[in-house]
Design goal:
single chain, 400 residues, alpha+beta, Alpha-Beta Plaits, 3 domains, 5-stranded mixed β-sheet, 3-stranded mixed β-sheet, 13 strands, globular
């Protein structure tokens, strides 16, 4: 880690730097799709968000283009990643967003799949043991098939039960706390699948209706994921995080990743010699190689409509992005809206609803927009319609 007094940086410099890192200054060419998706991966919850996030960054993105990348070329992979959320990222970068995310300790893994602890105590199993039991049965259940989580979980749980001693089998088959009429063991299997995605065993096939079916990775790709050095994958993940979200802290990285702040040392110690301390209303760290870029970044002009849980709004130091008084408008406990980015600042929120073949976007801005920017909001909204299966779009603009 670079020594000396912390470098003072301004909020404007940091916002401009992050927008550039997130490809929100200028849309990229279509052939840059994988580079954009691989910068820090793209979350796809609610379903469709990933496609909209890519459209905000890359010209001429269509559902058909994304479908080809996922289902035909297999150049984009869909699986659970940070915080156990579904993500899209380049298949070539799979190690970064699977092995690079996987915590090294039992405690950190339990935190990543928070909620499994009481069930494991009832069963007298460690998480590692439960994962191993699930792994031992998954190929027999999933080979040659595509199964959604409930179907896969139920079949796996039945097979695992047969391998357990009688006393543990009874607890495994008892009703659990996760869903009505769901056996305890089936709920545990759901948690174990999140670990198996990070081990490169399973991933998602394209959605079928409202279901995201699981497949075996080696069958889906035609080969297993390459062997990887876990330390190299963790270091690369943190480098990418800091490129997109820096300057940042251990605590904010932990929240983005889905582990406790006390568990991030297996990532942080690998890159700390490459970091410079900066002062951004308190100590934070930036890759030393990015310091000149941060100082020279300029705020963009124009408008983008970012989807709910866009990579840019996954920043944990929310005060840097938006005045605190608007936080409850941008980040909800459930049902986050999309956000309106105007000249580099989050200037409001948007929500869609379908009406027949049309799409209605209700846009609420934090302050009145100039007429020219209102037109750009409408122009951006026109590009959302085909991504949402609509033939037309109507924008309803209102000030907060």
């Amino acid at each position: 880690m670079a020594q000396g007094r912390p470098v003072t940086v301004s909020r404007g410099d940091v916002v401009a730097f992050r927008l550039g890192a997130h490809h929100l200054v200028e849309r990229q060419r279509t052939d840059a799709l994988l580079d954009v998706a691989g910068r820090c991966a793209v979350q796809d919850s609610p379903p469709g968000s990933a496609l909209q996030a890519l459209r905000a960054r890359v010209r001429d993105v269509t559902p058909e283009l994304a479908d080809r990348a996922v289902a035909e070329q297999k150049s984009l992979l869909q699986t659970w990643s940070m915080r156990g959320a579904p993500y899209w990222f380049p298949t070539a970068d799979a190690a970064v967003f699977t092995a690079g995310v996987l915590p090294t300790s039992e405690g950190a893994r339990r935190h990543l799949v928070l909620g499994v602890e009481q069930a494991l105590e009832t069963l007298g199993l460690s998480l590692s043991e439960a994962v191993e039991l699930t792994r031992a049965e998954i190929r027999g259940v999933l080979s040659g098939r595509r199964l959604a989580i409930n179907e896969l979980g139920a079949e796996l749980a039945r097979r695992v039960a047969d391998a357990l001693p009688a006393a543990r089998r009874e607890a495994w088959r008892s009703e659990g706390p996760y869903a009505a009429n769901q056996p305890l063991g089936e709920g545990v299997v759901h948690f174990c699948l999140r670990i198996l995605t990070l081990e490169g065993v399973v991933c998602f096939a394209p959605r079928a209706g409202n279901k995201a079916p699981f497949v075996l990775v080696d069958e889906w790709l035609g080969h297993p994921l390459p062997e990887t050095d876990p330390e190299a994958a963790r270091a690369e993940l943190l480098h990418r995080y800091l490129r997109c979200y820096g300057p940042s802290t251990r605590k904010d990285f932990a929240a983005w990743l889905g582990v406790a702040a006390s568990d991030v040392d297996p990532w942080w110690r690998l890159v700390e010699d490459d970091l410079t301390e900066v002062d951004l209303d308190g100590p934070a760290w930036l890759r030393s190689a990015d310091l000149d870029t941060l100082r020279s970044s300029a705020m963009p002009t124009g408008v983008r409509l970012l989807p709910p849980r866009d990579p840019y709004t996954q920043l944990r130091d929310r005060e840097t992005l938006v005045d605190r008084k608007y936080h409850r408008e941008v980040w909800k406990t459930a049902g986050d809206p999309g956000t309106v980015l105007v000249d580099g600042e989050i200037a409001g929120t948007w929500r869609p609803r379908k009406k027949g073949h049309g799409l209605i976007l209700t846009v609420t801005t934090f302050r009145p927009l100039p007429a020219g920017r209102k037109k750009l909001v409408r122009d951006e909204a026109e590009q959302l319609a085909p991504l949402r299966g609509a033939s037309s779009v109507t924008v309803e603009l209102a000030d907060h």
